Amino acid sequence: MKTPVDIAVTGAAGQISYSLLFRLAAGDLLGPDQPIVLRLLEITPALEVLKGVVMELHDCAFPLLHKVVITDDPKVAFDNVDYAFLIGAKPRRHGMLRSDLLSENAEIFIVQGRALNEAASRNVKVLVTGNPANTNAYLAISQAPDLAPECFAAMTMLDHTRAVSQLAQKCGVLTKDIKNITVWGNHSCMQYPDLHHARVKGQEALSLVEHDWFVNEFLPTVQHRGTEVIKTRGQSSAGSAANAVIKHMSTWINGTDDGDWVSMAVPSDGSYGIEPGLVFSFPVTVTNGQYNIVKGLDLNEFSLERLRQNQAELIEERQMVRHLL
Ligand code: NAX
């Protein structure tokens, strides 16, 4: 029997977690012979609801679920964890300014960055999903000097899988036939889902679809998909977000397929002119549990302009929370 692995999930009583926790306990991330301990973090008023979720987890009698810890203390949640899913964040309330939303969430990720620095395994993989995900990840990294910045990433995998699915539907192929799509930049409506290097069954995607479709349908559809889901379902994406959380982390652990890459928001190393340290979504490959930004892709002026817009938005977000550091 393998030693159980500790996994932290924040915002554990929220809707994404309601899908994610059952998949983690079923072995969807670490496989059918790896026992786990779930360490679940919530704010104090949500602990009662979280107890109900834990009752359901126990009711499933998952053989791999060795223990569940629930807490409102980040240091307890992150104690010696190998994987941390930072999902909990405050939603935007009616009439709230973007700068207020950024500040309120910044405080959460500053506290959690410090707690990770103190308590987590030195090889922890931290995936930030709570919005604004890129800036929250940037803040957590800034508070965790004893952890390598490469221990952190923010999630643009849902944008990536949305883009893959839209292109597959347009071309009448399966999603497995699509390779080398990139979502660049910020996990916001500014994001740039890029088809210039994408391939469909080995053929260049942009030779198979009209340029007008790429610019005027594909781009806005992927950029605004989250809003469309809220309009249609009445609630924000949860099942698809949990799926993207699992896909991001399992790719980070197991590696990318030969000849393909995925999109992850990671600290920039200066590639493509993006300011070093800014958490920016790039095409990445993963080997031996380490992500590497794909270098040297040719970007035309259309693409470069969109990268610059994303960089400007992320610098503005950082500016709005800098006083808290
Ligand atoms: P919910 O509002 O259902 O759940 C959030 C949970 O976080 C709540 O239970 C709340 O009590 C908890 N929470 C708040 N502050 C906390 C703190 N300091 N410590 C621990 N827990 C805390 O939201 P849900 O639909 O689950 O979405 C969670 C976050 O993911 C949101 O910020 C959302 O915007 C973001 N998303 C990010 C996506 C991405 O691709 N990066 C896609 C999906 C999602 O929209």
UniProtKB/TrEMBL annotation:
Substrate binds at residues 92, 98, 131, 162. NAD(+) binds at residues 11-17, 105, 112, 129-131. SUPFAM superfamilies: LDH C-terminal domain-like, NAD(P)-binding Rossmann-fold domains. The active site is at residue 187. Pfam families: Ldh_1_C, Ldh_1_N. Residues 156-318 form the Lactate/malate dehydrogenase C-terminal domain. Its EC number is 1.1.1.37. It catalyses: (S)-malate + NAD(+) = oxaloacetate + NADH + H(+). Belongs to the LDH/MDH superfamily. MDH type 2 family. Catalyzes the reversible oxidation of malate to oxaloacetate. This is Malate dehydrogenase. It comes from Methylomonas rapida.
